[in-house]
Amino acid sequence: MADYKNLAKAVIDGVGGEGNIVSLYHCMTRLRFKLKDGSKFNKKELQNTDGVITVVESNGQYQVVIGNHVADVFDTITKMYNIVATSNEKDTNEKKGNPIARVFNIMSNIFTPIVPLLAGSGMLKAVLVILTTYFGMSAEGSTYMILSAASNAVFYFFPLVLAFSAARAFGTNPFVSFAIMGALLEPKFTGLMQNVGDIVEFANLPIVLMGYSGTVIPAILAIWAFSYLERFLNRYVPNLIKMFAVPMLSLLIMVPLTAGVIGPIGVYLGNWIADGIAFMSGTSGMLTGAIIGAGWTFLVMFGVHWGIVPAMLNNLSTTGFDTIRPPVANATFAQAGVAFGVFLKAKDKKLKTTAISVMMPALLAGITEPIVYGLSVKYKRPMIAAVIGGTLGGGFAGAMKTTVMAYVFPALTTLPAFMTGTFVYYIISITIAFTVTAALTYILGFDEEDTKEPLPKDQPKKTPSVTRSIVLSPLTGQIVPLNQVKDPVFSTEAMGKGIAILPEDGKVYSPVSGKVTTLFHTGHAIGLTSDLNTEILIHIGLDTVKLNGEFFITHVQQGDDVEKGQLLIEFDVKKIVEAGYDVTTPVIITNSNDYTDVIETEQKSVKKQDVLLTAVVL
């Protein structure tokens, strides 16, 4: 076993020393730190440390990517230092942590699972506008009414959707949460109100009536309060009657409390936010848009953009349009401009191909992470170009008070959602962002030689004894290019070259004959070394380490010899997705540097044991 003491010391020094660490745990490839003082985190020093692949900062968590030897480094650290080492991230979520980071994390947990639904419903709403405006569809016809119901349902019942999602984020009963907010949409309750602000009595106490359909903040506040009430009731209600008594008391207390106090506060707060954004836009729309266009990418990188998403949704529910999303779109198209500029400037054919491949997901789906981490951050000067382009485009969009009618990901495919009275200005703004950024990226240039981090000292290059190594598909599913995986550690090839699969079923088979060299205790990832010395990592889903083994069953142990096609792991795809996780599974050759090239399959979908990757030495 290699000696990791020097690497362990370098990592601890880089995060600010033993005394700066609140807690530490690791997943399949990364050491994950919670720190007392983030300013002591020396990212540059860590990135230049032999043995560290890359460094990621997100939501108050500091991740040091080690690779296959992360468990060994973790064990070395815990032996050398007196550090609180935990088995999973849940143990690190202490109440005394950074409250702002916790709020952003909670917002992320609430909104991430429902954003695709919002985007889909919003696009359907936009398509209906086009059909009625340009193609003669009658807004009075039954076809329109049915499609309108499909597009409006999520927004009308949005408090119910939010209640269910918030319950999972706050760790409370989602079905009781659903019923609490459902009571405020129930016809007998809504029938009490003739006008907003009407007052009725409840047990001789006044209740101010509000309309809650489409609201955002009341549901989040109500379920947050309910999470404390439920814990209190579970502590003191006798087990004999707990099954019905806790839900009954929860409804008895929370429905009047929400209707009388929490709900009105949430509605007024939402209106104040909408008025505040309207004031900012009216006072200096150009400055507001420029700030958003310049800074949105950095908010996404640090994971704090989720704190602004509720404001966008609140605008849509209260006014029917939003002025934040158009400047955000300029940040997206600026990153696409980076990719185009790199394509025009680069001399290396592989870099040109990479630039075009990462530009298309940005233009067609609004996915910019591969560009941000693979080009902008990596080469630095393109990020400067993107900030300038985003500033100019966002400033123009803000100055012209550009609007959007639905919550969608900014992309060419979602243009219908921006077809309001300011659509022309939106097109002009994203064109500015894209072209200015592309031109500046070309003019400023970048260092094409700055492409790879040095190999860890404990991972010397090896020369394979063969010229070709075949890796079969461990799964049946759809192929996903690695640069489209929503995790920069994989999409930037920091872990090595490979490909990803969106699985159709939950069975992982061995892609090679060889040995199980690493098997994480949660079962979400496995490392294999083939008989031909090819090192392979299969990482089931993204961030699934947080499930702590739930929904995974392993059929092998670390150190086992395995044959091609042998069943390694089973996992429940449906339940993992329902828990809010992306099941896209990267398959990586972690010792890619040992090979001249790694050739990916050209198939769009694969069955288990199809040829997936071919590692070649010329």
From TrEMBL:
PROSITE patterns per the UniProt record, alphabetical: PTS_EIIA_TYPE_1, PTS_EIIB_TYPE_1, PTS_EIIB_TYPE_1_CYS, PTS_EIIC_TYPE_1
Domain PTS EIIA type-1: start-end pairs: 487-591
Domain PTS EIIC type-1: 105-460
InterPro entries the UniProt entry points to: Dup_hybrid_motif, Glu_permease_IIB, PTrfase_EIIB_Cys, PTS_EIIA_1_perm, PTS_EIIC, PTS_EIIC_1, PTS_IIABC_b_glu, PTS_IIB_1
Entry membrane topology: Multi-pass membrane protein
Transmembrane segments: 110-135, 155-185, 205-229, 249-274, 286-308, 358-377, 383-411, 423-444
Sorted UniProt keywords: Cell membrane, Kinase, Membrane, Phosphotransferase system, Sugar transport, Transferase, Transmembrane, Transmembrane helix, Transport
Gene3D superfamilies listed in its UniProt record: Glucose Permease (Domain IIA) (2.70.70.10), Glucose permease domain IIB (3.30.1360.60)
Cell location: Cell membrane
CDD domains for the chain: PTS_IIA_glc, PTS_IIB_glc
Active site: C27
Domain PTS EIIB type-1: 5-87
PANTHER family from the UniProt entry: PHOSPHOTRANSFERASE SYSTEM TRANSPORT PROTEIN, PTS SYSTEM ARBUTIN-, CELLOBIOSE-, AND SALICIN-SPECIFIC EIIBC COMPONENT-RELATED
UniProt-recorded name of the protein: PTS system beta-glucosides-specific IIC component
Record organism: Anoxybacillus andreesenii
Lineage: Bacteria, Bacillati, Bacillota, Bacilli, Bacillales
